[in-house]
């Protein structure tokens, strides 16, 4: 059913995750705590009740979007490191729409406009790359900081709550909230949106001509050009879609979870999205599962922090270790394959 | 029986998917010129790279003057005074001749003036006419090769290994190189010459070793053999003689017409200068010349990948000079590129998808943007069968196929999808004789199908075997257009080196 | 007032120049140190922690250098030895270091009642030179890290263009095969260069914690490692270019701090904070020609 390559990837990634957790466990020893009991709490707490399980998917939702954002441009051999900034732009848009249209109508409008806004913010990077051959890695990196400052400024001024105490917006009217799909949890429609987005991205990349062209440009730009494809247009469109996907995370977080916009929320979903995309090898369906995994680590980690006194930064540590091991596993897999083939050849000829 | 200068004993090398060398034993004496002859992929470069320390042998030993030595890196080889000049020069294009030669041979602070003087004197001593302050990217290919040789001489090498050195030279430059090789060996040094060209071997070698499929199949003195015998040792099965077809006087109507085509990048020499020619339907039109004299630019402008500065291109009387690549594909221009890894295929995609590279703009395989994968796979399977491609199926990755089979796929794709005009750019480079034969058959078949064919090649034998007419390129200009029957290799060699039509005929 | 601005500019340029200079060397061998932001952060944390515990700033700098070295060696191992993707690996390491520093901060200090501080590096006036009007106070009343860059820039230029080591470094990024064939290990050149970059970047990161602010927060680097990275690009992989680029950015940053301090501004604070980043974007787009090392970012596979 499953081909050898996918099987290898699943096995090595499983071990990468395990190794990452083991190393984190070792770090816990430095806190003079028992890693086994701490991890015990981590795993048991994740599933302690329906609400917590729901939280896993709540946390996974924006990660799916930012991971898709990175993966989409990655398929074109482009590096969109600016998903965090595109997310901020999407958030600003979502909250602005919801404040202006305090009714259920806000939701579809916010979805469309956040996608467009994130898309424009990302599209700018694509145009720079296409027209000026600028380094998109640098520009996308910098654009996040600009977006962050823009958001902070708006929260302090135009979007600020009427009380004027904190740099944050008013709470959104209940009718603009994304409806819950499982009662007694925070799990909202945004998760469905994320799944739909992942499936759509998969279909686009692997079943449409457009997706084919994106992948061709990503794998061999010159051959693609010789076959009539215009790489510059591909750059622009893939950055627009990528930025748009990250922008959608703004809707899910603002309308689905926070019901307002404030500073410093979800500060690392951009970077984590990159990690998840790597873990899933760029495959949109794999991204869904990897995001749920990271969401679970996050939820468990937070509770673990409350109950056992291990700081929640252990989560970032775990995620970081897992990512590093996943990268190393690429190397291990290739080495395996080569040694295996070479051995076959040598034995078959003596 | 004196001990050989250098000896390889029972060398074997296994790569992930192929046995490159199996039980290879050979030796070379001082003052000897040894030719390592074999088709592409026979394993010649591999065993020499082992001798030079670029590869590690899996089995076997190396000896110098009877003593066992260990060569793990090129550093070790250099210590034993072995030097190797590769097929693709390992020079830094952005650096000068001096910088390239002293790389790895200086320590600490560099006195640039002194270095330049030393190298310039060395160049003079061997009669090499190069300005050592020039950057490699500003030198001709022949001059670049001289720089590679100079580097070996700077290191005082006693054994010089050259991998396909004549691939990029004009016949006259080849003569110069042979003269150098003779002088160098007469001084007591040894030369190992890797090549697949029978003629050169008979010209310059003292002894010839023939390799095939990673093993040694012959070890003879030049005097004791001839080209026929060597050819038999090189290949496994006989190759049928190809029938070129009748040499019709005026074959068909004009399909492609190039007029005054010129490409001049800003402030630089023209890459193409006032190129004029016509290609008729049912004709194979050859483009001869040493690599780098405008052929690539010609192909690129015809495909639409490069904009000409002036001039026009007409396809079936329609002006296509400013059309995009995509439009030209729709109009039926086929292109088999010289660098298939770079321009022809996406190695990590499967064969179906590689077929789709050409077909993606036609309605047949996609409806509203969705790919009809089943139909595509069927068409691909049919094509694989028709062109005798050894592949597991349409979903095999391009990277898994051998070079010859990859080329068959590209040829098949271009031929099946093209209209009236198809360009073959060095279509048999790097292929073994069986695959070469396949490609030649395909080309001749299309000629019978009345297509207009342009064949770019640096192999004169190929030009003479297939083409009806040939244009010789030198520095972006056409030196002359001839019927192949009017030329011989000496005349064409002179044209390739820049002599004009008048001076030669 | 102007003197203050320029003096500040030189000060703020210091870590940027250290970072971009080391990045120039690494990228000339073909390796982008995308873990630079993480290395800066690691250096900032290690420097602060060591200085706080031992009471010695010198110790702080030493540990900053060591920690930078370790992180760089991990990066180099994955990217040069295992030949994995540079951007992906750098991102992973940056996330790891972020978590690691937060975590270690907790391990070592627990949850402190009030913010921990150390006395930052003092300015040392160079006798005679600091008395020169205008130039004196700007260039010669700085801390030792800043003085080090006066030496490092010409030294870097000299090494890169006038020594055999520099020739090897430059050739490795242009055509590693040429270097390999000459008998020099490409992996060794890259590994060592990246490792040394780590040492310098670790110290550069420590500048923010013990050289300037006297405290540590996990977001104190705030993208400055990336700006150093960008300066390498914009300076055309040349020590002199890096120097010029850094001064421009240092000026922008000093200007921003000045503007923020004077509360009566029409323009928002955030605009000034964004200035360096916007500047980077504009320059990245507008720069016409680059001398990118040809094989930058491409792994080299030696067979032997």
In brief, what are we looking at here?
The complex is a heterotrimer of chains A (350), B (505) and C (304). With 350 residues, chain A is mainly α.
Q: Can you lay out the helices and strands and say which pair or pack?
A:
The complex is a heterotrimer of chains A (350), B (505) and C (304).
Chain A: H1 4-30, H2 35-46, H3 50-74, H4 83-100, H5 106-132, H6 136-156, H7 189-207, H8 209-219, H9 221-226, H10 231-258, H11 269-279, H12 284-308, H13 313-347
Chain B: E1 6-14, E2 19-28, E3 33-37, H1 44-51, E4 59-64, E5 67-69, H2 74-79, E6 82-85, H3 97-102, H4 112-125, H5 141-154, E7 159-163, H6 171-186, E8 190-195, H7 198-204, E9 207-212, E10 215-221, H8 227-234, E11 254-263, E12 272-280, E13 284-288, H9 295-303, E14 310-315, E15 318-319, H10 325-330, E16 333-336, H11 340-344, H12 351-359, E17 366-367, E18 370-371, H13 373-386, H14 403-417, E19 421-425, H15 433-448, E20 452-456, H16 460-466, E21 469-474, E22 477-483, H17 489-496, H18 501-504
Parallel strand pairs in B: 3-8, 3-9, 6-7, 7-8, 13-20, 13-21, 16-19, 19-20
Antiparallel strand pairs in B: 1-2, 1-4, 4-5, 9-10, 11-12, 11-14, 14-15, 17-18, 21-22
Helix pairs in contact in B: 12-13, 12-14, 14-15
Chain C: H1 2-28, H2 36-54, H3 57-81, H4 86-109, E1 124-125, H5 135-139, E2 141-142, H6 144-162, H7 164-174, H8 176-181, H9 186-213, H10 224-234, H11 239-261, H12 269-286
Antiparallel strand pairs in C: 1-2
Helix pairs in contact in C: 1-6, 1-7, 1-9, 1-10, 1-11, 2-3, 2-4, 2-9, 2-10, 3-4, 3-9, 6-7, 10-11, 10-12, 11-12
């Amino acid at each position: 059913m499953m081909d050898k390559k996918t099987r290898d990837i699943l096995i090595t990634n499983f071990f990468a995750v395990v190794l990452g957790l083991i190393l984190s466990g070792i770090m816990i020893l430095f806190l003079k705590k028992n890693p086994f009991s701490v991890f015990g709490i981590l795993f048991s707490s994740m599933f302690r009740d329906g609400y917590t399980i729901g939280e896993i998917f709540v946390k996974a939702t924006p990660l799916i979007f930012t991971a898709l954002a990175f993966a989409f441009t990655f398929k074109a051999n482009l590096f969109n490191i600016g998903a965090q900034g595109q997310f901020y732009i999407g958030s600003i848009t979502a909250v602005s729409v919801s404040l202006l249209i305090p009714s259920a109508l806000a939701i579809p409008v916010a979805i469309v406009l956040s996608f467009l806004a994130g898309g424009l913010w990302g599209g700018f990077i694509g145009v720079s790359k296409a027209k000026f051959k600028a380094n998109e890695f640098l520009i996308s990196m910098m654009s996040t900081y600009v977006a962050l400052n823009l958001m902070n400024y708006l929260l302090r001024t135009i979007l600020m709550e009427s009380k004027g105490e904190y740099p944050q917006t008013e709470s959104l009217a209940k009718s603009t909230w994304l409806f819950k799909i499982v009662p007694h949890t925070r799990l909202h429609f945004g998760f469905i949106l994320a799944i739909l987005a992942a499936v759509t991205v998969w279909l686009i990349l692997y079943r449409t001509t457009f997706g084919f062209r994106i992948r061709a440009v990503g794998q061999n730009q010159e051959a693609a050009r010789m076959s009539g494809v215009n790489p510059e247009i591909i750059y622009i469109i893939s950055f627009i879609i990528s930025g748009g996907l990250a922008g959608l995370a703004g809707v899910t977080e603002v309308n689905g979870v926070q019901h307002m916009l404030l500073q410093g929320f979800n500060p690392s979903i951009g970077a984590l999205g990159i990690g998840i995309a790597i873990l899933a090898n760029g495959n949109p369906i794999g991204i869904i599962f990897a995001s749920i995994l990271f969401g679970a680590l996050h939820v468990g980690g937070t509770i673990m922090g409350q109950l056992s006194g291990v700081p929640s930064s252990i989560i970032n540590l775990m995620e970081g270790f897992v990512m590093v091991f996943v990268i190393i596993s690429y190397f291990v897999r290739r080495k395996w394959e080569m040694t295996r083939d070479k051995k076959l050849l040598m034995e078959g000829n003596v | 029986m004196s001990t050989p200068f250098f000896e390889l004993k029972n060398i074997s090398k296994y790569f992930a998917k192929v046995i490159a060398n199996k039980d290879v034993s050979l030796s070379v004496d001082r003052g000897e010129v040894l030719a390592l002859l074999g088709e592409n992929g026979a394993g010649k470069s591999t065993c020499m790279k082992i001798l030079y320390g670029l590869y590690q042998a899996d089995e076997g030993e190396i000896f110098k003057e009877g003593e066992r030595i260990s060569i793990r890196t090129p550093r070790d080889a250099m210590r034993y005074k072995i030097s190797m000049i590769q097929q693709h020069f390992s020079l830094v294009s952005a650096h000068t001749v001096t910088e390239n030669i002293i790389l790895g041979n200086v320590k600490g602070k560099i006195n640039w003036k002194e270095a330049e003087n030393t190298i310039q004197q060395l160049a003079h001593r061997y009669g090499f006419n190069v300005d050592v302050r020039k950057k490699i990217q500003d030198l001709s290919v022949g001059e670049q090769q001289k720089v590679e040789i100079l580097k070996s001489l700077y290191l005082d090498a006693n054994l010089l290994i050259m991998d396909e050195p004549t691939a990029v030279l004009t016949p006259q430059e080849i003569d110069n190189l042979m003269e150098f090789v003779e002088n160098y060996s007469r001084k007591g040094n040894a030369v190992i010459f890797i090549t697949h060209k029978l003629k050169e071997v008979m010209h310059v070698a003292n002894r010839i070793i023939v390799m095939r499929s990673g093993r040694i199949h012959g070890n003879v003195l030049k005097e004791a053999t001839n080209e026929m015998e060597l050819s038999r040792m090189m290949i496994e099965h006989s190759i049928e003689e190809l029938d070129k077809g009748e040499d019709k006087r005026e074959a068909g109507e004009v399909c492609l017409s190039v007029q005054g085509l010129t490409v001049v990048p800003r402030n630089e020499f023209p890459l193409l200068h006032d190129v004029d020619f016509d290609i008729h339907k049912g004709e194979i039109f050859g483009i001869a010349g040493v690599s780098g004299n405008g052929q690539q630019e010609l192909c690129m402008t015809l495909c639409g990948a490069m904009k000409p500065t002036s001039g026009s291109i007409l396809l079936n009387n329609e002006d296509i000079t400013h059309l995009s690549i995509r439009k030209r594909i729709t109009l039926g221009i086929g292109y088999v590129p010289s660098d298939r890894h770079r321009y022809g295929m996406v190695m990590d995609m499967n064969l179906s998808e590689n077929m789709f590279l050409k077909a993606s703009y036609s309605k047949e395989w996609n409806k509203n943007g969705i790919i009809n994968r089943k139909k595509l796979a069927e068409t691909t399977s049919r094509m694989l069968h028709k062109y005798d491609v050894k592949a597991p199926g349409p979903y095999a990755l391009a990277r898994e196929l051998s070079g010859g089979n990859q080329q068959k796929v590209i040829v098949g794709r271009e031929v099946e999808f093209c209209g009236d005009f198809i360009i073959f750019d060095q279509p048999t480079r790097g292929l073994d004789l069986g695959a070469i034969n396949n490609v030649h058959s395909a080309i001749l078949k299309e000629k019978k199908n009345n297509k207009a064919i342009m064949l770019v090649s640096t192999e004169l034998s190929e030009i003479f075997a297939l083409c009806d007419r040939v244009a010789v390129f030198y520095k972006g200009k056409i030196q002359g257009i001839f019927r192949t029957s009017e030329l011989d290799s000496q005349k064409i060699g002179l044209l390739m080196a820049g002599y004009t039509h008048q001076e030669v005929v | 007032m102007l003197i203050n601005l320029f003096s500040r500019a030189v000060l703020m340029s210091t870590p940027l120049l250290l970072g971009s200079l080391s990045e120039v060397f690494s990228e000339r061998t073909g390796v982008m140190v995308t873990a630079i932001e993480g290395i800066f952060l690691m250096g900032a944390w290690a420097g602060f922690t060591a200085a706080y515990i031992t009471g010695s700033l010198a110790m702080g700098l030493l540990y900053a250098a060591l920690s930078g070295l370790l992180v760089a060696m991990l990066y180099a191992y994955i990217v040069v030895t295992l030949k994995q993707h540079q951007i992906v690996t750098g991102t992973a390491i940056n996330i790891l270091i972020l978590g690691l520093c937060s975590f270690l901060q907790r391990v070592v200090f627990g949850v402190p009642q009030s913010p921990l501080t150390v006395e930052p590096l003092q300015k040392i006036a160079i006798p005679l030179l600091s008395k020169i009007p205008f130039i004196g106070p700007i260039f010669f009343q700085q801390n030792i890290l800043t003085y080090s860059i006066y030496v490092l820039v010409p030294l870097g230029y000299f090494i890169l263009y006038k020594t055999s080591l520099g020739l090897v470094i430059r050739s490795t990024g242009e055509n590693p095969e040429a270097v390999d064939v000459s008998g020099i290990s490409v992996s060794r050149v890259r590994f060592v260069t990246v490792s040394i970059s780590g040492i310098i970047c670790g110290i550069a990161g420590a500048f923010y914690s013990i050289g300037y602010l006297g405290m540590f927060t996990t977001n104190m680097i705030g993208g400055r490692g990336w700006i150093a990275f960008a300066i390498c690009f914009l300076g055309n992989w040349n020590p002199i270019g890096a120097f010029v680029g850094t001064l421009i950015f240092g000026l922008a940053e000093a200007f921003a701090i000045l503007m923020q301090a004077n509360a009566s501004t029409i323009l928002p604070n955030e605009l000034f904070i964004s200035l360096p980043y916007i500047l980077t974007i504009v320059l990245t787009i507008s720069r016409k020609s680059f001398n990118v090392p040809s094989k930058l970012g491409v792994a080299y596979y030696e067979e032997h």
